[in-house]
Amino acid sequence: MVRTPCCDQNGMKKGTWTPEEDRKLVAYVTRYGCWNWRQLPKFAGLKRCGKSCRLRWMNYLRPNVKRGNYTHEEEETITRLHASLGNKWSAIAAELPGRTDNEVKNYWHTNLKKRQKQNSSSVEISQLEKSSSNSTASIITTDNCLSPNNVDDYYSSEIQEVLMEPNNNNNNNSNEAMKMIMSSNSTSRSSQLETVVNKNNINNVHSPLSPQPSSSGSEISTTTTDTSTSTSRASTDNNNNNATTETTTNYSTNYFVGDLSYNFNDLFEDDQAFQHELFSDSFWTEPFLADHNSYIPTTTTHDHDYLITNANSLMDSDDLLSPTLDNILLFTSNSSTSTAGYFYEENLVGLL
DNA sequence: AATCAAGCCAACCGCACGCTC
DNA sequence: AGAGCGTGCGGTTGGCTTGAT
């Protein structure tokens, strides 16, 4: 069952977010950034207050938000920091990459606090946690890094040819390459997409309409999150464009279970219907166009931990008005685990 | 199978802080 | 200086899930 949505006196929707709302918010923020939370819902076509949008993004939709079990180390960190800082949840969460203050707070109240009480008299907390912890650690790895030395391994020869064609300018070459990639099989698509970016020597490029990378956020990291929960997700009826939901009673939770990249990669892999919806006029509705014509965000906050790169902008194109299959690439970014200029398989969150 | 209770956690609310003018 | 605005933080709520009976 889904929590019954309600509206406040201003007609703003409250309660559980629907997949459709999530899509709109993700699409808008990844394209334009969170330049003003209060104004954002209006431009994004959401009947939510800015606070609600911010909370949803920060705690749930943002790339690199780690979900699932806490590791022993994370539990220790929370326990230790709470002992010294008290209920400074944001400060504690800052020491736990991927965890939000809200999540840490909830975890403390539901697990650690209880445990600490039970064992404070005689048992060392760390020993207890060690015995009780069977959680799956998140893995930070550089194994899938595509360095400039091996990017060509990831190109198909066809695409390399297009990119190297002397008579085309870089923009046309790249757009053509992108189209070829999109028509290729899904297993090679993501790696080829990111090498298009590498091939154009793009490390820190962004659209004037997309969020600026944070001061430390131009690099790319890779984070794999445990997604042990079974997943179902929304799909779209290709014919009538009506969203339907598969096998879910709490679809907003199930839809985004695990990390965001899972979902986007999933869409990327096999959900042509949803991709189709994303690129249709009905999804990219008036707010985007109005935004584009009337307001160009020029400021962003410094808490972006993702890099949204507009492929057209990477290719020096001015045409951003019509989102198409070849114009927006979304990577996650985290300066703490990155190597500048490298693009990682897992960090290609998707193509919008 | 049905009911109940406890636990979990996403989301809301109010306040405080910082920035701009 | 202080008013207005946007954002962040911590406390709280309440609907959903799960396990016990």
UniProtKB/TrEMBL annotation:
Domain Myb-like: from-to ranges: 9-61, 62-112
Residue ranges, annotated region (Disordered): 115-143, 202-248
Residue ranges with Low complexity bias: 131-142, 214-248
Subcellular location: Nucleus
GO molecular function terms listed in the Swiss-Prot or TrEMBL record: DNA binding
Superkingdom as given in the UniProt entry: Eukaryota
Ranges of compositional bias, category Polar residues: 118-130, 202-213
A Pfam family that the UniProt record links to this protein: Myb_DNA-binding
Domain HTH myb-type: 13-61, 62-116
Subcellular location, principal: nucleus
Gene Ontology CC terms, in alphabetical order: nucleus
Keywords annotated in UniProt: DNA-binding, Nucleus, Repeat, Transcription, Transcription regulation
CDD domains noted in UniProt: SANT
Protein name: Uncharacterized protein
Organism: Cannabis sativa
